Amino acid sequence: MSALLEVRGLRKRFPSGDAGWLDVLTRVDFTLQRGEVAAIVGASGSGKSTLLHLLGALDTATGGEIVLDGQAYGALDQAALAVLRNRRLGFVFQYHHLLREFSALENVMMPLRIAGWDEERSRSRAEQLLAEVGLAGRMTHRPAALSGGEQQRCAVARALVHDPDLVLADEPTGNLDHAAGVLVADLFFRLARELETAVLIVTHNRQLAARVDRALLLEDGQLTYVGEVEALP
What we know:
Elements lengths: L4 E11 L5 E12 L4 E5 L6 H8 L7 E6 L2 E2 L5 H11 E4 L11 H11 L4 H14 L15 H13 L5 E5 L7 H18 L2 E5 L3 H4 L4 E6 L2 E6 L6
Parallel strand pairs: 3-8, 3-9, 6-7, 7-8
Antiparallel strand pairs: 1-2, 1-4, 4-5, 9-10
C-alpha cells in the first residue's frame, strides 16, 4: 500500500546574519499511512515546529520533496497550496485559535463555508462533529464560555470537519491539565482511525507519545530515529 504522505530529503535553512545560514532541517525522510498516528519528539530547537510548518504548506522547503497522496507540494502554485491547506489538511495548535466572536458551532462550520459548502450542509456536518467530541450541549457557546478542554475539543472538531487527509497538531495538549489532555488525545486516536485520517503530533509529552503508532525523533534538524515508541533512545 502506497503511503499517504512521503517526505524525501527535506531541508530547511534560514538566513542568519552576515550572509550566513542556519540549517534547521537536514535531509528528513519518512512516510505516513492513512489512519496512522505518529509523534514528532525532540528537544526545543530541534526543528519540530519548522517541520510541521513545511508539511502544512505554511512555509516552503529549501530542498527535498513533500508528497501528499501523490501530489507534490513543489509542483503547486500559491492558489493550489491554499486549496490544499483548506481541503486536505487540518490543524490543531497548543492554543485553540477559535474566533472569539463566533459560537463553537460557527467556528467548526467556518472551514466548510470557506470551501463553498452551503449553510444547511455545513451546519449538519459541524453539529455531527461537535457531538462526536462531546460538545452537543455547548454548540451555541462562544469560546470564552468554554473550559480549556472544551475549547481544544472544539478545535479538534474544526480540524476534522472537512475530512482532511492529514491533521497536523502542535502540542495539542500543552495547555491542558492531565484529565483534559487525556480526553483530547483519546479523541485524536479514535477519530483518526474512524475517519482514516493520518495524524502527526508534535509533543513534549512522553505519555501522549507513548500511545502513538510510531515515533519520529528529531535531533539538531536530523531525523535520527523512526520506529516503535518503546525503543525511543
